[in-house]
Each structure stands twice: as C-alpha cells, then as structure tokens.
C-alpha cells in the first residue's frame, strides 16, 4: 500500500534472472523481502522494478558435496534451522521469529550484508564460500572477501548469489548473540568454531560496519591463552542509543568468552 | 431454559463472547467499512519540529493520477472550522490554538501541513509524498526543563516562557514544618520518560456527508464516541450534535490514545462535506508514532521526610510536565488532578505538597496513557519510599507496613484533596509477600553475591483513584464534561434483551462482563443478552471508557436500569399471578407467589405480556425498557501490592525480569478471567516502560524511536509467568461495590520493576537511583562506575 510505484516480475531460472538484470540495470532483486519491503514501505528505498527470485527452484535446498554443504541462496532460515549444517541452525534460530524465518532466505540475508545480521559471523568463522553468477559466468568468493562494508557485499550489480558453500565438518561451534531490544537484530553476535583440525576460528557481527574475523581471539585460543579482553581490532565501531562503540567492544569480549567456553 | 443457568454469573471466569470474532478475523474495525465512492486522504506531515510554512505549491501535484483535492490550513479556516478545544481548564491556562491543519506554523514533527485526497490510498500517498512545501526552520525545544530555561526557543507566541500552567496542591507551610522536625530526609531526582501508546489497530476515520439531510456520519477509532460527537459538532464544526452520528466499531486497543479528538477526524468530515463523497484515512504505523498522543514525560524532584521511628512525615514534589506542542483533551488534568491528588499513596502522610509546571515543547502532545497521572504518582512515591528504606536500613516491606493507613481509618481524608472510601492494605501486602516467598528471595539475594548475577526484589504498594468521576466535583476542578454514565435496557417481546451503554469496549470485554451483571439481575440465560455500544445513533448519551471507569460507573448505570426493568416486570408478574406485588418473589429465574411455588411466571411470559399489552395492570404503559443515568458519589480506590524479581548480569548489564507476583484489590470481580487479562496486559505495559520503551527525542525535537525497529515493546519471551491474586474490599458507594482493574497493572508494575532493578543495584554497589528505562549499557556503566568508586567489588 505505502511503497512508491514499482514494476514487478518473477524469474523462474537463474539464466532468466541474469537476462532481466542485464536488460534493466535499475532492477532490484527481491528474495524473502524482509529487509527490502520495510525500506520500501518507509520509501527509504524506491526501486523502479523488482525481480523476484524466490521461486527459482535451482536456488533452493541443501546438498552435500564431499567436505562441503552447498546451500541454495533461496533456502529459508526455517530450512537452515532444520538442517544438518554446522553452526548455521543455531544462528538461524536467532533470526527474527517463525514468520520471518519462513520467508527470509540465507542468500538474501548474506547478499544484503546488513552489519547487524547474524549469518555473516557464522560464514566468516566457518570459512564459507559464496558462489556468484553474473554475465561473465560464475565465480567463488571466500567469506573474507564477501562483506565489504555497510550493506555492501561482493555481489555486484547484474550478479546473483546462487549458493553458499559451507564446510561440512567441524568439531564444535557456538554462536552468542546480544539482541537489540527493539529490532532483535544483533547489537553484537560472536561465532566461534573448532574446525576439523582442532583449530579455533571466530568472527563477530553487529559491532562494526561489517562482520569481521576475531584474529586475536583465534591466536590466543590456538596458543592456549585465555580469551582476555580487547578482542576487536577495528577502530570504527557503530554506536546508537542502545549501545555505544565502547559497550559493543566490551560485549564482543563477553560473548567471545561465552562462545569459546562452548567449543 | 432456566435449568442450565448458573446461580450467579457475576464472579464467573466466562470466556469472552467477543473473542471468536476477533481471533477469526471477522471483527469490524473502522478501516473495514467501505462506503460507495469513498475517497482516500493522506496527510502531509511536518519533517520539522518547529517551522514556518512559507509556501505550499498545490500545482506540484496537479495532474497526478487520481488526485481530487489538496486541503491546507487556509481551507480549514475558510470553512469556519474551529480549533480543537481543551476539555479540562485550569486557572490561567494558556491554550495555544490547535488547528486541524497547521495555519502558518508547525510545532512538532508529524504536525499536519496539508491533506491530499485521491481516488485510491496509493494515489493519495504518492501525491502527499510529492507535494512541495517550503519551510523556514525555527529553533525548537524538546525537553520540558529545557523549555523553561532562560532564552529557550518559544514554541508559541501566546504561551510566554512555554509555561501553560503552574499548579499546586497541599499545605506548603505544614509540609515545611514537617521537614523541620524530620529525623531524616531523602531527595530524589526522577525522570518519568515519555512513552508511545502503540495500540495494535492504528487510528482510522471514515466520514460521509448527506447533502439531503445535512447529516454527517463518522466511523472513527474512539474510546468515547459521544465525546467526539459533542466536541466535533458543538466546538469544531459548528453543527447540531444530532446532525453528527459517530460510530466507534470494533477498536483494537486504545490505552488512552483514542480518547482524544484528533485533527484527522475533522479533516475527513470537512473533506467529505466539501467533496460530496465519503473520505477515509487510516494511519500508517509510522504516522502513529508521530501523531498518536504520547504519555508520561515528567521531570521531578521528590523529597521524603521521616521521624526517628521511620514514620513518614511529609512528601514534597516538584514536577515539570512536558505537554508537547498542543494541549489536547485531558492534557491539563493528567499531571495535576490525576497526579498531584494521588501523591499521598497508601500512607499516613501528615503533609504533602506538590507543584507542577505544565510546559509546551516541540514534541507530539502528551495526554492520558494507561493510568494517566497515577503511574507517574505511584512511580514517584514508591521509588522515593524505597530510597528512604534503603538509607534507613529498613526492609522495604516493613517500612511500608508501619506507614499504611489502617482499615479503621476510612473514609480517609488525605492532605491532597481525595477522600479514600475504603481500603485494607496490609492483607494485600502479606499475601503478595507469601506468594513470592519474599524471605527466601532475600536469602537468595545474599547467596547470589559474587556469582556475576545480582538479584533484585522490587516491592510496591499502590493506590489509584478511578471510576471517573463525580460530575459536580470534576466540574469544580475544571472539567468541561460530565462524568456520569448512562445505560438503556431494552427487553424484546421474546424475552431477549439488549443492553446499551455509553461505555466503550476496545479490549475490556464489556460484551461479556455487562451481560454477566444483567443475567444475574434479570435471572435469565446470558445467551439471551447482547451489549450494544459505540454508536451515538443507537445509544444517545455517554462519556466513554478511560480511567478504569466502565465497571464502576457504566456497570452501576446498567444495574440501575436493570432495577427499573425488574421492578416493572414484578408488577406485571403480580398482575398475571393475581397476587399482590409484595407477595411475589423473583427467584430461580421465575416470578412466583411466596408460599405457592407452583404459581409462577417466567421472564419470557412477562416480556411478552409487556409488549402484547393484553393484560397489564391498570394504567401501566406497555413495553419493557428503561434508561438510567448514574453519577458516582466518589472515585473508587483500588489498591494492592506488586512484587517484581529481576536478575542482572553484571558482565553485560542485562536485566532479566525473572518473576512477578501481584495482589490487587478491585472489589468484587465481575469476570476473573477478564480481570486477570487486564492485569497481565497492564503488567507487560508497565514493565515495558521500566526496561525497554522510550519515546526518545533529540534536543531539537526529532523522534529517535519512530519505528518498532527502535521503539522496544516487550515480547512474550521477555516476560515471566505472572502470579496474580486478589483481596476483595468493596467500594461502599456504588451499587456493585466494584472498583476498576484496567490500569492497575500498569500503574503498579513500572514502579515495581524499577524498584527491583534499583534494589539489586543498591545491594550490589549502593547505587541510590537511576532513571528508567534500565537499558543494558546504562546498568553496565552504573555498575562499573560504582565499583570504580568503591574499589574492587566483592565478586571481582
């Protein structure tokens, strides 16, 4: 009712979606719509056209390929929650509520690169890979190169995130989240995993402009030291009425301690 | 038919009759009504907190699809539409004009600058977004105390110094004398921050004008359609009230925010008249945030004095009440007669004095929000009482106990005007302490020291005045309204009964509770009774629902009307039984001759004869219908004790509400299930203020919490199981003995949860007071700073 006028079309295949994007650079891809539609209703986003990729069958579901799970971008949070993926089910449970999880998708969330989203921490900690298809063909981006800034991911105009590749085996994993009291997005989320070789990898989301690895935590834990404090290296943390940068940095330390205790 | 009827409906936890339609989506809300040819209005709202409108360029939306009209302040003025009046006047009250559409100046973000009417909602919204308006920004002020400062921006030229009123109550000399002989005093600065009501159904209005009869019809989201009719007809539109029918159909919550007469209601009426077609407006949620009247917003200093026995001697209060940009319907009464008069609480204070300054600012207007003044009073008293208990080293429960007004002291004249009709505060306190295992909680609090978690136990004993109100009294105090209620009982020939009330149900369950009263009185099955409300065309008079008044005032009016019905029915029955009226009794669902139980007439027999009139007593008018008006003799005074239990994580400052128990005394319960539901919702809303909700503005008057992504309301998983119980002390002066329960939960729980948090912080690190809401960073910093000041804390 309240958004500005827009055109709408549905794609039934990745090829069709890419063709539509190539023909109309202004088109905005919509998946579950749980980030885009609220922005459109407030007219903060006024895309002239939406391309709905929700119905593309080849983007749905989770399959095992050797040491990896390959997750279709249009797999819902609800399906992630019920899956055998490492760590991601626990993280999916922290996303929204059942209605959001039944509609929101893993690909939509990760491509959107909301600095307060939960999945990026898990993707970084696990060392996930992102399969992106565009006019030039397909490329695979490691997690460390996926999140570039606030609402800025490696997915370029004209491209579509098609799959997320997630290592199938870890020894242990944990996600600790500190929710924004109103939105329930992460003010801070910390993911810690112990990989197949027993090495700790960790990352946080929410505190800064993008999700980041927690290298200090990894180094300390992998060399048998305690978690300690001062884990965040970034100088630019976010701040708002509910959580100042200093508090967010402190929360990373607290949540890292709690997550580390579980792996 | 009468066999299945229980002996008594009053007191039964019947499921609500209205719920099937609500939970199956078949309720009929204002936005659900569709009139042929309806046009849609969209509001152009000010992005500025304070600005002069230098130009509105109507041509900027010329030719946009579907656009029918643009209305501005000039159009409103040209139509002779008056400003929206204030319904409660105080001496020397300064009332800035509140126009339906701004006339030259806007005074808060969200103020209405212009209106676009179009054939569809989407067209109206599109055009409203593009209407070109030029503003010259003016300096603005958002905080009450800042508006009082020297050199502060002036919100309105005709409100000098931004002071709308100064008001005081109590004997200041007596209070000063009490403080002079005090053994100990405490002084607390308290901010009772601003809230947004957030009814689940946004406001909506649909107006129709008939050129033939010159009658208006208005569907609107109102808690009191009769007040809307009176104000809109007599004061704003300048038409006879019988030319305006106001229908307030199913309404999805109000919490006070749907009492007031709003700008949009005037706009759709005017637009419908000018354009000759029905006009509808429904708020977007983001409009609700900047246009529904908001609540609370006090800055206060409270001082409490006690003698060497811990007996309270006096309470001194100085409050700055932020009223927002305009004075709305009850705005002057909320921080004065609904607040200052309540500052005695449940205690034997020899002296209380309060001074209140009502201030205008460049924010959304503030008016009654669930509890309206009484939560502010309760929070101030109970927080201050706890600070004193802590400093005296007394248990907060015992400190309260030794200061309670005793049961043999009622009626009790307080130093701040009210006469409490009845009360018995100690049993409610004891029951609550027992329910929550208070002593065990205190022991657990000690055990938890050093664990990284701290336990807080918050206890409050509240009192409220509700059942608004004796008309002559409120008239003396400045009300421009009566506060009685009326009821009509109409018995049909088949014995089916319609009850009409001027009360309005928007979540209170009247359609169940009122028939429970009637079923007992008429001794007929409740299934034969329906309640009609919310339509000035069907029920001529009433004053609506707010201030927990419906059961005590509307219910009493109903009881009186029912008494007239049964009196006439008994006369008819006696006539039919060929007995004298004195020999006829009304029992077990029938009228029968005493000593000859085989001779009886049912209610149906009587109703049918009343309408057939084949055989009525000599001179009796046919029909069976009665109207009654009930004007209460006093307020009613519910009370009780609430206990909140919180756990604070010292690493993060997160407060978890772990337990909650309450014992309320609202007199006899008409329907315990509905009463419990009211208590549950009230506790959630009050706890929301203590822990999460805040309508935060920046200093220039921009609302920082304008969506649910920023404004944190409690969710089910934020709240514990609530334990509820009651004591029953009837009101001596109304025919049902009932008091009110709609606001008690909110009035009590904000203070209870706040006291729990501060109890934890006092025990952990001797923090005397922090302002709500207790967001995690605030609590974390306070603990860190306090520990810094105290050296190493015990559990580090």
UniProtKB/TrEMBL annotation, chain A:
Instruction: Output the PROSITE patterns linked to this UniProt entry.
Output: FAD_PCMH
Q: Which InterPro entries match?
A: CO_DH_flav_C (IPR005107), CO_DH_flav_C_dom_sf (IPR036683), Diverse_Substr_Oxidored (IPR051312), FAD-bd_PCMH (IPR016166), FAD-bd_PCMH-like_sf (IPR036318), FAD-bd_PCMH_sub1 (IPR016167), FAD-bd_PCMH_sub2 (IPR016169), Mopterin_DH_FAD-bd (IPR002346)
Q: Which UniProt keywords apply?
A: FAD, Flavoprotein, Oxidoreductase
UniProt GO molecular function: FAD binding; oxidoreductase activity
Q: Does the keyword Cell division apply?
A: no
Residue ranges of domain FAD-binding PCMH-type in the record: 1-171
A family per Pfam:
FAD_binding_5
Q: Does the keyword Flavoprotein apply?
A: yes
Q: State the protein's name.
A: Molybdopterin dehydrogenase
TrEMBL record, chain B:
Q: Which residues form the Aldehyde oxidase/xanthine dehydrogenase a/b hammerhead domain?
A: 24-139
Q: Does the record carry Oxidoreductase as a key word?
A: yes
Q: Which Gene3D superfamilies match?
A: Aldehyde oxidase/xanthine dehydrogenase, a/b hammerhead (3.90.1170.50), Aldehyde oxidase/xanthine dehydrogenase, molybdopterin binding domain (3.30.365.10)
Q: What keywords are annotated for this sequence in UniProt?
A: Molybdenum, Oxidoreductase
Q: Which InterPro entries has this protein been placed in?
A: Ald_Oxase/Xan_DH_a/b, Ald_Oxase/Xan_DH_a/b_sf, Ald_Oxase/xanthine_DH-like, AldOxase/xan_DH_MoCoBD1, AldOxase/xan_DH_MoCoBD2, AldOxase/xan_DH_Mopterin-bd_sf
Name under which the protein is recorded: Aldehyde oxidase
**Which GO terms label this protein's molecular function in UniProt?**
iron ion binding; oxidoreductase activity
In its keyword annotation, does this UniProt entry include Manganese? no
Question: According to the lineage, what is the superkingdom?
Answer: Bacteria
């Amino acid at each position: 009712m309240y958004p500005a006028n827009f055109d709408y079309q549905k794609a039934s295949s990745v090829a069709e979606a890419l063709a539509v994007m190539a023909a109309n650079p202004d088109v905005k891809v919509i998946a579950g719509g749980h980030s885009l539609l609220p922005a459109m209703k407030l007219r903060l986003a006024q895309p002239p056209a939406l391309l709905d990729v929700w119905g593309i069958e080849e983007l749905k579901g989770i399959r095992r390929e050797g040491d990896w799970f390959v997750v279709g971008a249009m797999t819902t949070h609800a399906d992630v929650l019920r899956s055998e993926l490492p760590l991601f089910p626990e993280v999916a449970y922290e996303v929204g509520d059942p209605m959001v999880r039944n509609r929101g998708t893993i690909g939509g969330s990760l491509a959107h690169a909301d600095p307060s989203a939960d999945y990026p921490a898990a993707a970084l900690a696990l060392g996930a890979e992102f399969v992106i298809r565009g006019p030039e063909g397909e490329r695979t981006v490691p997690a460390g190169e996926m999140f570039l800034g606030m609402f800025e991911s490696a997915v370029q105009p004209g491209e579509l995130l098609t799959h997320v590749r997630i290592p199938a085996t870890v020894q242990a994993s944990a996600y600790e989240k500190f929710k924004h009291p109103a939105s329930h997005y992460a003010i801070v989320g910390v993911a810690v995993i112990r990989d197949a070789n027993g090495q700790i990898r960790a990352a946080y989301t929410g505190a800064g402009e993008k999700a980041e690895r927690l290298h200090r935590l990894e180094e300390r834990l992998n060399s048998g030291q305690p978690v300690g404090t001062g884990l965040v290296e970034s100088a630019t943390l976010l701040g708002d009425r509910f959580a100042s940068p200093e508090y967010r940095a402190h929360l990373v330390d607290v949540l890292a301690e709690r997550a580390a205790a579980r792996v | 038919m009468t066999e299945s009827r229980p002996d008594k409906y009053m007191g039964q936890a019947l499921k609500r009759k209205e719920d099937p339609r609500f939970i199956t989506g078949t309720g009929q809300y204002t936005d659900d009504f569709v009139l042929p040819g309806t046009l849609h209005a969209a509001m152009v709202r000010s992005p500025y907190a304070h600005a002069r409108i230098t130009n509105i360029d109507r041509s900027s939306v010329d030719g946009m699809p579907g656009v029918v009209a643009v209305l501005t302040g000039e159009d409103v003025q040209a139509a002779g539409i008056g400003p929206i009046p204030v319904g409660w006047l105080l001496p020397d009250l300064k009332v800035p004009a509140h126009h339906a559409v701004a006339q030259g100046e806007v005074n808060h973000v969200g103020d209405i600058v212009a209106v676009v009417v179009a054939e569809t909602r989407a067209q109206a919204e599109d055009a409203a977004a593009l209407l070109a308006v030029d503003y010259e920004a003016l300096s603005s002020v958002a905080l009450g105390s800042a508006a009082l400062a020297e050199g502060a921006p002036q919100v309105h030229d005709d409100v000098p110094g931004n002071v709308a009123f100064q008001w005081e109550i109590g004997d200041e000399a007596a209070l000063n004398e009490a403080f002079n002989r005090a053994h100990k005093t405490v002084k607390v600065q308290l901010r009772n921050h601003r809230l947004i009501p957030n009814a689940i159904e946004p406001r909506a209005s649909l107006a129709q004008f008939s050129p033939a009869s010159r009658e208006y019809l208005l569907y609107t989201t109102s808690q009191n359609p009769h007040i809307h009719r009176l104000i809109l007809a007599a004061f704003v539109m300048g038409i006879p009230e019988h030319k305006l029918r106001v229908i307030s159909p199913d309404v999805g919550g109000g919490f006070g925010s749907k009492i007031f007469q709003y700008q949009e209601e005037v706009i759709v009426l005017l637009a419908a008249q000018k354009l000759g077609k029905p006009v509808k407006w429904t708020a977007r949620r983001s409009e609700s945030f900047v246009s529904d009247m908001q609540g609370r917003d006090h800055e206060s200093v409270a001082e409490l004095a006690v003698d060497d026995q811990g007996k309270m001697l006096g309470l001194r209060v100085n409050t700055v009440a932020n009223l927002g940009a305009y004075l709305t319907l009850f705005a002057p009464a909320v921080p004065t007669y609904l607040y200052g008069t309540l500052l005695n609480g449940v205690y034997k204070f020899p002296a209380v004095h309060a001074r209140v300054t009502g201030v205008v600012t460049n924010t959304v207007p503030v008016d009654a929000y669930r509890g309206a003044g009484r939560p502010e009073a309760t929070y101030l008293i109970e927080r201050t009482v706890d600070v004193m208990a802590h400093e005296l080293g007394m248990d907060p429960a015992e400190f309260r106990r030794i200061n309670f007004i005793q049961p043999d002291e009622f009626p009790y004249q307080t130093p701040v005007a009210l006469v409490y009709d009845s009360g018995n505060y100690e049993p409610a306190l004891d029951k609550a302490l027992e329910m929550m295992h208070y002593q065990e909680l205190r022991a657990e609090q000690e055990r938890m020291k050093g664990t990284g978690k701290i336990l807080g136990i918050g206890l409050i004993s509240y009192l409220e005045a509700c059942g608004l109100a004796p008309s002559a009294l409120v008239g003396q105090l400045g009300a421009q309204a009566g506060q009685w209620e009326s009821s009509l009982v109409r018995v049909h020939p088949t014995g089916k009964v319609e009850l009409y009330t001027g009360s309005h149900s928007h979540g209170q369950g009247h359609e169940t509770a009122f028939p429970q009263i009637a079923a007992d009185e008429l001794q007929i099955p409740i299934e034969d009774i329906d309640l009609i409300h919310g339509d000035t065309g069907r029920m001529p008079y009433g004053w609506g629902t707010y201030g927990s008044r419906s059961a005590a005032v509307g219910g009493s009016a109903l009881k009186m009307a029912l008494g007239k019905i049964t009196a006439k029915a008994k006369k008819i029955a006696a006539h039919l039984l060929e007995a004298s009226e004195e020999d006829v009794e009304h029992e077990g669902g029938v009228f029968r001759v005493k000593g000859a139980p085989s001779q009886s007439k049912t209610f149906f027999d009587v109703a049918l004869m009343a309408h057939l009139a084949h055989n009525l007593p000599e001179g009796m008018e046919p029909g069976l219908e009665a109207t009654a008006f009930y004007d209460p003799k006093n307020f009613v005074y519910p009370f009780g004790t609430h206990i909140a239990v919180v756990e604070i994580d010292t690493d993060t400052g997160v407060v978890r509400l772990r337990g909650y128990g309450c014992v309320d005394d609202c007199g006899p319960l008409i329907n315990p299930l509905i009463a419990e539901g009211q208590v549950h919702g009230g506790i959630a809303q009050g706890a929301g203020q203590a822990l999460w909700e805040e309508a935060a503005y920046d200093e220039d008057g921009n609302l920082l919490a304008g969506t649910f992504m920023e404004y944190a309301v409690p969710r089910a998983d934020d709240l514990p199981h609530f334990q509820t119980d009651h004591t029953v002390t009837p009101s001596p002066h109304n025919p049902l003995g009932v008091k009110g329960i709609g606001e008690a939960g909110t009035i009590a729980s904000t203070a209870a949860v706040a006291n729990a948090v501060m109890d934890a912080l006092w025990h952990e690190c001797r923090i005397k007071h922090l302002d709500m809401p207790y967001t995690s960073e605030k609590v974390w910093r306070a603990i860190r700073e306090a520990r810094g000041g105290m050296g190493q804390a015990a559990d580090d």
